[in-house]
Design goal:
Chains A, B: Keywords: Carboxypeptidase, Glycoprotein, Hydrolase, Protease, Secreted, Signal. The structure is a homodimer. The first copy, chain A, is of the alpha/beta class. The first copy, chain A, has a single domain, classed as 3-Layer(aba) Sandwich (Rossmann fold). Chain A is built from 13 helices and 11 strands. In chain A, strands 1, 2, 3, 4, 5, 6, 7, 8, 9, 10 and 11 form an 11-stranded mixed beta sheet that branches. The longest helix of chain A has 22 residues. The interface between A and B is large, with 40 and 40 residues.
Amino acid sequence: MKNTFALCSYLLLLVTLLGLVFSNCKANQVDNLDELINSRSSENAPKTLSWTKEDAYIPKYYHTSSIGPSPSQEEQKLADKITALPGQPYYGSNFDQYAGYVTVDPNVGRDLFYYFVESPANSSQYNPLVLWLNGVANVLFLESPAGVGFSYTQNDSQTFFPTSGDKAAAKDAYVFLVNWLDRFPEYKDREIYITGESYAGHYVPQLAYTIVVNNLFRQIANQSVINLQGIAIGNPWVDDFTGVKGLFDYLWTHALNSDQTHELIETYCDFKPHQPISSICINATRNAFAEKGPIDSYNIYAPLCHDTSLKPSQTGSVYNFDPCSDVYVQAYLNRPEVQEALHAKPTQWSHCSGDVDSRVSVTATRYALNVLKLPIVTPWYPWYSENEIGGYAVQYKGLVFATVRGAGHMVPSWQPERAFNLILAFLSGYPSPPGSPK
Amino acid sequence: MKNTFALCSYLLLLVTLLGLVFSNCKANQVDNLDELINSRSSENAPKTLSWTKEDAYIPKYYHTSSIGPSPSQEEQKLADKITALPGQPYYGSNFDQYAGYVTVDPNVGRDLFYYFVESPANSSQYNPLVLWLNGVANVLFLESPAGVGFSYTQNDSQTFFPTSGDKAAAKDAYVFLVNWLDRFPEYKDREIYITGESYAGHYVPQLAYTIVVNNLFRQIANQSVINLQGIAIGNPWVDDFTGVKGLFDYLWTHALNSDQTHELIETYCDFKPHQPISSICINATRNAFAEKGPIDSYNIYAPLCHDTSLKPSQTGSVYNFDPCSDVYVQAYLNRPEVQEALHAKPTQWSHCSGDVDSRVSVTATRYALNVLKLPIVTPWYPWYSENEIGGYAVQYKGLVFATVRGAGHMVPSWQPERAFNLILAFLSGYPSPPGSPK
């Protein structure tokens, strides 16, 4: 399928039933939501809705190979290969891993960090490439924008924050991808899928649009293009109005808020952009967060992390999800020998990306979908995974909405089989796992 | 607290966050709901809302001891004692169990079956008595009305169905209780709590009202009264309007129904009693059940029972809830030696009580509570159990509404610690487990 793309023919929204989501920063939630709500009444409210082709077109960028006296792509790729990660089982793994940096702007020293997991050696050389934004088949994990995780920019003023710099973040990710494909040329013609979750509800479609626009220009110039096949976003933050309204409706309908607080929000908050917000509304939203108390917003039914010490009984199996795993991950990624093995520059790695810090509910996603008014191809139906209803799906024209039943925000952690079967269907071009009895 | 009662000072509604509930019959749900909806538009719609003192007053009933040549109460109690249940661990249990029949109408041969678990021998002789209706501290499980479980009536036309015979069921339960207390006289002055779930939303308050009314008459006549202290109902079916509306709102807000079906229900169903129901509404409610597909309505996130054979790896621990446990229970209770050990007449025991077969959601309970317009004493707050939020509570004047976070219908099966701490608080007179940090 070289030189063709079918963007939007399988736009798969993976949203969870349970997971209230807020980006990937666990900072104070009330403050961040206030900030978000207030930001929309300020004069500098982010405007990310309108993109022109000119916004997305990148006429010129530095190929990594064209930057001064640097090693060849082949040498760089070899250097990126991970020999072994500290703590990895001694018998190794049956797949190759790479990690390192791709420069997106040598002038200000902006490099994006990636982690790449290749399919097992004996699997097909035609397996597609999946790019995962926002955090973690052949899966290429990209920490984006610069300033997030191990990705950095030497010039601080050039740090790109998502609320002000969605377009810059998309351009950086595009340049990263072109340069990364130079380093891994065997993937240049491979089918590529772009995925992500939470604020990637912005990143993913914006990067896809950037690819589509640049592909158009490059086709005219008879240049090679990126073989983009589809995008998938999970629990996506799509827009502020549906996101915030959906969040508070979710809290009430899941019995986490009182009738009184919900009624105040219904009456006094309209969540429309650029409207002044009443103090009654602000107080009511504060109450909404206070009332639900300290629960895991990623999975409202999950236990909290009370004891961060590693227990000997822990198997580490994904089937026994440990609510403290975030803490272990953060500790692990900050060990110097781990950073060295990953070819990352020594830094303080943290879960917090500092961007839009609020939760994304299935309710919000449905409100956002309704705004699109897409024609329905296949109405609401349950899809199956291992004999159980794995979730529900609606096939719209050019887009599939799918839920994962009983999953928190980190879908593969809570429902590994359902997540695997759903992503497999997505990569195979099915709207949902095939063969589901109806 | 002899000769006093404080009914309604601790009316505790235990409702789950997750459990869609329908009575205790797992028959075809769509048919039953249709039946319920249609029944309200018929001329013979059940009228259970108005009770007068005359309805509840029972001037004369047969004491078991006054029925012909029967064994003495002491002899009957001894006969009811369960020596051992088949499959019970060989070292026995540290508590006593009794089971048997109490006659409520010797003329038509109507006997109610009970199963009674006494607190461990070394615990206080002042431990209260808890009566559990609808199925299973000192806990007295009563299968009511006659025709349910092992309870029976010899005259079939005298079988009391709940939709037509709520008052008769309450009178039978009252007569049962008086006669049972004759058989277990050490409990006559003990504090008594009446509990139950699902359709017990009718049974429990109606029995409580019957007790209160008869206590009043008996106090005037200087006779002993039943020491009723409080009632608790879990996932109660309170009334049709809030129950059915709450059910469909729950299905939609928990992403089990499509937007389209929900909108049809919102527009074309008003669920008001004695209104003709449009065919659009009936079709839409059919769709609502079809769309959610075959999931466990008792816990929408739980697995289904696929393999009913007992696996050797099963520990039987309540912490590893087995979705097939209903099947084992049914098989166990139909073993002749078990029926014999329980002093039950040989019969085909089944989960199905044949009464109102629809689910009760937390949404429905809140709608029902709002109808009461009770003043709030303590507004919405989280209550704690073992360091986690166990659920939320609102203390109204004379009534507490409490949720159990992450529990399905059978609350103790899914959240044993939370259920235990909540019922302990209820019996201690607290609105929720004390010492919860706020």
